[in-house]
Design brief:
The chain is built from seven helices and twelve strands. It is an alpha/beta fold and 279 residues long.
């Protein structure tokens, strides 16, 4: 991955010919959606793919000037990213979750990077996770994270599996904005414990197939090892122990998530083995 060591003072955005399409996929995200869309106001096109929201999400999207595309409910955004991109009139697309807010001064830097690197396919943004409006600096969610937020729609390939990265087509490169506070994407990850468990339980149901398709296989010894490793790394490597009760809770929560995800792999693996054996 190529990364810039520093950005020169970019020319004004008005001098740049790069145009963006901002996309957010939402389901009942009215609480956060307005801030997300407002951070994308510099985009020449703004699209909200709504999955059947029953709150004010659609109204908020329209008030923010977004084109609203209605789509049937899907459990994760990965299932419709490729379809969502087809609505984009511009080659460069900014994908945000409805609970993410783009940095205020990132527009010129993005245009500058794209102008300076003609073979660029993807730009990563450093990302800060928030738990109930408070930034996290412990556990895996507090360590440095990157978001594949800005991509060229003809130079990228999407995966339909949960938590799988976008792939860059051969011949193109990716880069990352410098890890500076004014470039950090704000990700309001959790607003309540109920939301937290509902969200991750939805992911767990899909982790089995995702892990199987990328070559993982279930073994009991590796299951125990993965749980222990997840807990120890979060408590000590990622300073969960220093985060007080919340840090300890999140460390155990992540270990639980890993445990259930690998059990999901076991269940999917057994179903595949049964299917293969019956053929």
């Amino acid at each position: 991955m190529q990364e810039p060591t520093a950005l020169n003072s970019p020319p004004p955005a008005s001098q740049q010919k790069i145009q963006f399409t901002g996309i957010a996929v939402t389901y009942n995200e009215a609480r956060r959606l307005r801030d997300c869309l407002n951070s994308l106001r510099f985009c020449e096109q703004l699209i909200v793919v709504d999955l059947g929201s029953t709150d004010a999400s659609v109204e908020i999207a329209q008030q923010c000037g977004a084109e609203v595309v209605h789509h049937e409910r899907v459990p994760i955004v990965e299932h419709i990213r490729e379809k969502a991109v087809t609505y984009a009139r511009n080659d460069w697309v900014i994908f945000l979750d409805p609970d993410e807010v783009l940095p205020a001064k990132v527009e010129d830097e993005l245009r500058w990077l794209i102008t300076q690197q003609p073979n660029l396919g993807l730009i990563n943004l450093p990302r800060q996770f928030y738990f109930k409006n408070n930034p996290l600096n412990f556990t895996i969610w507090g360590k440095e994270q990157l978001k594949q937020a800005v991509l060229h729609k003809h130079r990228s390939k999407f995966s339909v599996y949960v938590h799988q990265p976008v792939q860059i087509i051969n011949g193109y490169i990716s880069t990352t904005l410098p890890r500076q506070p004014n470039y950090y994407l704000k990700h309001y990850w959790v607003d309540s414990y109920r939301q937290m468990f509902e969200k991750h339980w939805r992911y767990i149901k899909l982790e089995g197939k995702s892990r199987y398709e990328r070559g993982e296989r279930f073994y009991w010894h590796s299951w125990f090892k993965s749980i222990g490793s997840a807990l120890i790394h979060n408590l000590f490597t990622y300073n969960g122990i220093r985060g007080g009760l919340l840090g300890i809770f999140l460390s155990f929560f992540y270990a639980w998530y890993v445990a259930m995800s690998v059990l999901s792999l076991r269940q999917y693996q057994k179903s595949r083995e049964k299917e293969i054996g019956s053929n």
